[in-house]
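User: quick one - fold this with zinc ion bound?
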Amino acid sequence: MLDNKTILLVKEYIKYYYKNNKIEIKDIDKREFGFGDFENKISFRHYAFKNDNLLKNYFINNAPPFVSYSSAEYEFPDARPMDNKKWLGAELIFDLDADDLHLACQKEHGNLWVCENCLSSVKNETIRLIEEFLIPDFGFSESEIKINFSGNRGYHVHVLNKEVFKLGSEARRNISNYISGIGININAFFPTIDQRGVVLRGPKPTNGGWGGKLASSMIKRLNNGENSLLELGIEKSEARMLIKNKTDIIFGISIGNWDKVRIPKKSEFWKKVIKNLSIKQSDSIDKNVTNDIHHLIRVPNTIHGDSGLVAKEILSLNALEKFDPMKDAIAFKDGTLKVYVIKSNKFYMNDNEFEPFNNVYKELPTYAALYLVLKRVAKLV
Ligand SMILES: [Zn+2]
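Assistant: Sure. Structure tokens for the protein plus zinc ion:
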């Protein structure tokens, strides 16, 4: 828990941020809002605001550490219970969090800390979601896809499309299952996979959906080399063998003949590859936000109370590729603060490297000091 003195000071910074930054929200009068304190991301909900100015006043008066709004629009967003709000539709949202990637680095630094690898891995996953699924498979245009940094260790993707807006949770669950590779029947792509001595027929890169994705990804990764295959969970010895015969294999896959890919336990092998090509969202149903048509999600460009960073809106896919949250999402660039750091790992912020600290007093740039305090690894002095 943060002590009262710390809470008051951090709130002063939050207030300052909202005084100086304009938060614009599309269809604000139809959204439900929820606010958090430093312990809970949503402590109160069912709030509504008629316009951006009223919301700004709320921000300045209350300095909320977390601000969320509904991906849904309602006729009466502050009505209770939920049924009385009169649901009009909802954006399709995807919440990608480094935590769901189960990275090896997380075993070393724990779930509360976020390292460079966590941030770059979840960014790549977000780019793949958009480039390999949302645009080619669902036909959304880049202009319908809004991306923002979550403010801590992930990204939120909002799809603003008229047809999707009215979809219920069942249809959204199907979309989420599709991108997660859930419920794919391997035999549908490889009809002869369980038969010995028969040529293994499989998908071509020109096929739609997962079949085509599997074929084109294999060709792309064979061309990219061994490491690219290892990322799919393929064993080193198998990857070497595949690369050695890649010319033959690529030609085979391009015409739907997968017999050149000589792999034992083919069915399990391709299931594993599909799992690694799929997008990692939270796998528990109650945490999967894509399905939930009443979900509250962080308002873009607001402060995240566990990092002091901004849940920064990212204007294009191109901008996402260059985006560095530990630089581009910094809210408090001016001044320094004195802190007592209990224990922190090495981190980079605003192009500065901060070495690991262990039980020391430090004067740090405001953004770095607040970051450590809000990560609960330092105390304000
Ligand atoms: Zn990490």
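One thing worth noting: Residues 186-277 form one domain.
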